[in-house]
Design brief:
single chain, three-stranded antiparallel β-sheet, 9 strands
Length: 477
C-alpha cells in the first residue's frame, strides 16, 4: 500500500545526483510527479511568476513547492481522465497558443514594407498639398430641416462672424456657441487633415486660407461653419513618422493580418494545413525559447486544472445541498458576526395598499419563492413593485435600517415612482440561521475543503519525489 502522504526523498543525495545527471548540470530535475520529471527551470518559471520578491526565501519556496505539486497532480489526473482529448479543450488551447505563435512568424521586413506602403499612399493622397490644422465654429442644420431652422442658424452664424470681425476671440466663441461636442471644449480645434478627408466645401475653404486667417461662414451638408487655419506643414519624412505609422497599423490588426498570411504561405509551401504549420512552429520556437515553452505549457495545464476541478470538485460541491448544510452546521461559529443582520426582501411599491399585499402574498411561502411570486402576481401587467432579496448588515441599506432596525440614518427613504416601502424576512442577531443566509461564503469554503481532500487523494494515488538538494538551489545558481 502506498504511503498516506507523498513520498518525500529529502536528503537522498544519490537520487539527487541521478536527477542532475539525467537533466544536465544546468537544469537538474527538481521533482518527479507520477514518474514525470520537472526541471528546476520550469519550477523557477512558475515560482518567479507567482512571487514578486527578488530574494528567494527557502520557507516560501518549500511552501510553494507543495502547491506546485498539487497543481501538477491535478493536471496528471486530468490527462489520465483524457480531458485533453475533448474538442472544447483542444479548441481553446489552440486559440491561446496560436495567439502566441502567429505573431512570431511575422518578419520585420514584412512589417517595414507595410509601413512604407502606408507612407507612400499618404504622399499620393496629398498630391502635392501640405497638411492643414483647422479649427471651426459649427452650427448644426439637420437634413430636411424646416426653413425657419436654417434661417435661425444662418442668422446666428452671421452674428458670430460679425463679432469675430469686431475683434472677439475665436476660441472663446467656439467654446460658447459651437455645436461640435468634440471640438468646442478645445476652442474649435480639429486635427491635421489632408485632401479627401473632409467635406468638399470645408476642404476647399481650409486650403484657401493662410495661417491665422478666418473664413466667412460657409455651408456644408452638415450645417454652417466658420473656419480658422491654425497651422500648416509638409508631411514629415518617413523615418520621423515610422513609429507612429507602425503603432497606427498595429492598432488596426497589422501583425495579425501578416501572421495569417505568413501561416497560409508556409502551409502552401509545405503542402500541409494551417494547424499543422502552427503545431510544428510551436514545437520549433518552444525549443529555442524556454519562456515561450513554459508559457504554452502553463496555459495547457491551466485549462486542464480548471476542467478537472470544475467537474470533479467545484460543481459537485456547489450543488450538494445536503453536504453544504452539514458543513455549515459543523462550522457555524465561523460565520458569526458582531452586528445584527437581516435576511429578507426589501420592496418598494407604487401604491400604499401594495405594501400589505406583498406581505400577505409571501406569508407561508418558502423564502426561495418570494421574489418570483411577487414578480408573477404583482407585476403581471406593469411594474407595481420593485424588490430585491439578500443579506443585509446593519448600516448597509437605509431602508433596512429604518424598517427593520428602526434606526434613522438621515438618508432618503424615497424611491422615485415607488414611494412606499416594506421589508419581510428574518432578523439575525448573532449569526446566520441557515447555510443559505451566507450561501456565497459557505459554498466557497466548502469548495476549498473539497479541493484539499481531492489533492490529498491524488497524493495517495500518484508517486511524488522531491529532490531537496535541487530545491535549495532555486534562484541561487
Amino acid at each position: 500500500m502506498k504511503s498516506i502522504m507523498k513520498k518525500l526523498l529529502f536528503g537522498a543525495s544519490l537520487l539527487a545526483l541521478s536527477a542532475t545527471a539525467m537533466a544536465g548540470d544546468d537544469d537538474p530535475v527538481i521533482m518527479r510527479i507520477a514518474g514525470k520529471p520537472v526541471t528546476r527551470s520550469e519550477f523557477e518559471y512558475n515560482y518567479n511568476k507567482n512571487n514578486s520578491d527578488s530574494v528567494a526565501d527557502q520557507a516560501d519556496i518549500d511552501k510553494y513547492a507543495e502547491l506546485f505539486i498539487n497543481y501538477k497532480l491535478k493536471v496528471k489526473a486530468a490527462e489520465d481522465a483524457r480531458y485533453d482529448t475533448l474538442s472544447s479543450f483542444r479548441d481553446e488551447f489552440r486559440t491561446y497558443r496560436d495567439q502566441q505563435i502567429r505573431p512570431m512568424l511575422v518578419s520585420a521586413e514584412a512589417e517595414e514594407a507595410e509601413a512604407q506602403a502606408y507612407y507612400e499612399n499618404m504622399l499620393k493622397q496629398l498630391d502635392g498639398h501640405d497638411l492643414r490644422l483647422p479649427a471651426h465654429i459649427y452650427l448644426r442644420v439637420p437634413q430636411n430641416s424646416a426653413d425657419s431652422v436654417q434661417a435661425r442658424q444662418k442668422m446666428l452664424i452671421d452674428s458670430i462672424y460679425g463679432v469675430l470681425q469686431a475683434g472677439a476671440d475665436f476660441e472663446e466663441l467656439a467654446k460658447k456657441f459651437s455645436e461640435d461636442p468634440q471640438t468646442a471644449p478645445r476652442g474649435g480645434a480639429l486635427t491635421w487633415f489632408g485632401p479627401g478627408q473632409l467635406l468638399p466645401e470645408f476642404e476647399q475653404t481650409m486650403y484657401a486660407l493662410r495661417k491665422g486667417e478666418i473664413s466667412e461662414p460657409i455651408q456644408t451638408a452638415a450645417g454652417y461653419h466658420i473656419v480658422r487655419l491654425n497651422d500648416q506643414k509638409e508631411l514629415e519624412p518617413y523615418d520621423s513618422l515610422r513609429p507612429q505609422i507602425l503603432r497606427f497599423l498595429e492598432a488596426r490588426g497589422l501583425r495579425e493580418r501578416l501572421a495569417v498570411a505568413a501561416v497560409d504561405t508556409l502551409a502552401s509551401q509545405r503542402g500541409v494545413t494551417a494547424d499543422e504549420v502552427l503545431d510544428s512552429e510551436c514545437e520549433r520556437l518552444s525549443a529555442e525559447d524556454a519562456d515561450l515553452r513554459y508559457l504554452v505549457q502553463e496555459y495547457h495545464d491551466g485549462l486542464l486544472l480548471y476542467e478537472i476541478c470544475k467537474q470533479q470538485v467545484w460543481d459537485p460541491a456547489a450543488s450538494d445541498t445536503a453536504a453544504l448544510r452539514k458543513y455549515f452546521k459543523k462550522n457555524k461559529k465561523r460565520y458569526a458576526w458582531d452586528k445584527p443582520h437581516f435576511y429578507g426582501m426589501v420592496y418598494h411599491a407604487s401604491q400604499e395598499d401594495d405594501v400589505a399585499k406583498v406581505r400577505k402574498l409571501v406569508k407561508g411561502l418558502d423564502e426561495s419563492q418570494w421574489l418570483p411570486t411577487v414578480k408573477e402576481t404583482m407585476n403581471a401587467d406593469t411594474t407595481m413593485v420593485r424588490a430585491e432579496m439578500k443579506l443585509y448588515a446593519q448600516g448597509d441599506n437605509a431602508f433596512v435600517d429604518s424598517l427593520v432596525f428602526h434606526i434613522n440614518t438621515g438618508k432618503s427613504r424615497s424611491r422615485k415612482g415607488f414611494p412606499y416601502s416594506g421589508a419581510v424576512g428574518r432578523t439575525l442577531k448573532k449569526g446566520p440561521e441557515k447555510w443559505t443566509d451566507v450561501a456565497g461564503s459557505v459554498v466557497s469554503d466548502y469548495q476549498m475543503e473539497c479541493d484539499k481532500q481531492f489533492a490529498e487523494a491524488l497524493r495517495k494515488r500518484y508517486d511524488v519525489e522531491v529532490y531537496k538538494e535541487v530545491l535549495e538551489t532555486v534562484n541561487r545558481h
